[in-house]
Write a structure and sequence with these properties.
Cnbnoid_rcpt; Rhopdopsin 7-helix transmembrane proteins; 365 residues; globular; membrane; transducer
Length: 365
C-alpha cells in the first residue's frame, strides 16, 4: 500500500508541483470515464436548474423569505446548488481529465465539495428540527422559531461546516501531520476522514430520529381518529393529511438512506481494510449518489410545499400571459382573480403539519 501513497512519509505525494494522484485514478476504461462524465454533467445540470428555481421563487417573494421554514429550505437549496457546481466539476476534472493541481488547489476544491455536502445535511437537520417543533409545539411555534433565531442557527451551521471542511487546507492533512493517508482521498488523513464520518453519521441519525418521531406521532394520530370514529369533514381531512405527511417522511428517510449509506459504508471499510481497484471504482460511482440526493432534495422539501407550488404556478401563469396579446378584458379579469387569490392565500407556517395541530393536541394530550 505504500506504493499508493498511504504512507505518511511519501514526499512525492506532497510536492509543490502537483499532487501524486496515480493510485487514485481508478477509472481505467474510456467507457467508465464517459459514463461518469455523463452522469455528473446531467445530474449537475438538473440539480442547478431545480435549486436555482427554488431560490428564485423564495427570494422573489417577500412573504416566503421572511418565514423561518423557507430560510432553512433556502439554505438547503444553496448548499445543493454549490454541491452540483463544485462536485460535478471537481469529480469530472479529477477522474476523467486527471486534473489535481498543487496540494493547496486540490484541498481547496475538496474542501468546497465537503462544505457543500456537509452544509446540505446541516440544513436538512435544521429543517427536520423546524418540522419537529411545528408538529409538537404548534401553539408556541412562532414564538420559538423566529426569523432571527433561524438566521442565527444557519450562520452558526455554515461557519462550523466551513471551518471543518477546510481543516485539511489549514494543515490537518498528510503533508503536515504524521498520519496514515486515506486510500480514497489524496492528502486526507484517516483520522480526519473518520472524524468527518462520525459527524455525518451523527447528522443523519438526528435527521432520521426527528422524522421517525414525527412519523410515529402521525401514525398515532391516524389511529386516534379512526378509533374514535370521527366522521366530520375536518377529521377526515386530518387523516388524509396524516397519510400525506407519512408518505413524505417515508420518502425523506428512504432517500437519505439510499443516497448516503453506500458511500459511508465504503469509507468505513477503507479505514479498516485495504482497498483494491474494484472497490475504489464502486466508491467513485456511489459518490454520485450524494449528487442524486442534492437533485432530489428540491422535489422532496421545496416543490412538495403547497405555497411554493402555488408560487410556481403563478410564475408560469405570468409567463404565459406575457406571450399573449395584451388588452383582452378576459385576461384582465383573470389577472384580477389571480391577484385576489394570491392575497387570500393562507399564511401557513409549515404546510400540512400546521393544519393538524388541533388534532395532535387532542390525540396526544
Amino acid at each position: 500500500m505504500n506504493q499508493c501513497g498511504t504512507d505518511s512519509n511519501s514526499s512525492t505525494r506532497c510536492s509543490t508541483q502537483g499532487v501524486d494522484i496515480q493510485c487514485y485514478l481508478i477509472l481505467k476504461s474510456e467507457t467508465q470515464k464517459i459514463l461518469i462524465a455523463v452522469i455528473c454533467i446531467l445530474m449537475g445540470f438538473l440539480c442547478i436548474l431545480e435549486n436555482t428555481l427554488v431560490l428564485s421563487m423564495i427570494f422573489t417573494s417577500s412573504r416566503l423569505r421572511k418565514k423561518p421554514s423557507y430560510l432553512f429550505i433556502s439554505s438547503l437549496a444553496t448548499a445543493d446548488l454549490l454541491a452540483s457546481l463544485i462536485f460535478s466539476y471537481s469529480f469530472v476534472d479529477f477522474h476523467v481529465f486527471h486534473g489535481a493541481g498543487t496540494p493547496a488547489v486540490f484541498l481547496f476544491k475538496l474542501g468546497g465539495v465537503t462544505l457543500s455536502f456537509t452544509a446540505s445535511l446541516g440544513s436538512l437537520l435544521l429543517t427536520a428540527f423546524d418540522r419537529y417543533i411545528c408538529i409538537h409545539k404548534p401553539s408556541t411555534y412562532k414564538v420559538m422559531v423566529t426569523r432571527n433565531r433561524a438566521l442565527l442557527a444557519l450562520t452558526v451551521m455554515w461557519i462550523s461546516t466551513t471551518i471543518i471542511s477546510y481543516l485539511p487546507l489549514l494543515g490537518v492533512n498528510c503533508c503536515h501531520l504524521e498520519v496514515t493517508c486515506s486510500e480514497l482521498f489524496p492528502l486526507i488523513g484517516n483520522r480526519y476522514l473518520s472524524s468527518w464520518i462520525v459527524l455525518v453519521v451523527t447528522l443523519l441519525f438526528a435527521i432520521i430520529f426527528s422524522y421517525s418521531h414525527i412519523l410515529w406521532k402521525a401514525h398515532r394520530h391516524t389511529n386516534y381518529m379512526k378509533k374514535h370514529n370521527i366522521q366530520a369533514e375536518k377529521g377526515q381531512t386530518r387523516v388524509r393529511l396524516d397519510i400525506i405527511l407519512a408518505k413524505t417522511l417515508a420518502l425523506v428517510l428512504m432517500v437519505l438512506i439510499v443516497c448516503w449509506s453506500p458511500v459511508l459504508i465504503l469509507m468505513i471499510y477503507s479505514l479498516i481494510y485495504p482497498l483494491d481497484a474494484g472497490i475504489k471504482a464502486v466508491f467513485a460511482f456511489c459518490s454520485t449518489l450524494c449528487l442524486v440526493n442534492s437533485m432530489i432534495n428540491p422535489i422532496v422539501y421545496a416543490l412538495r410545499s403547497r405555497e411554493l407550488r402555488r408560487r410556481f404556478i403563478r410564475v408560469l401563469q405570468k409567463l404565459k400571459c406575457l406571450k399573449k396579446p395584451s388588452g383582452s378584458q378576459q385576461e384582465a379579469d383573470g389577472t384580477e382573480k389571480n391577484m385576489a387569490f394570491e392575497a387570500t392565500c393562507d399564511d401557513t407556517v409549515c404546510d400540512t403539519e400546521v393544519s393538524m395541530q388541533q388534532g395532535f393536541a387532542e390525540s396526544l394530550s
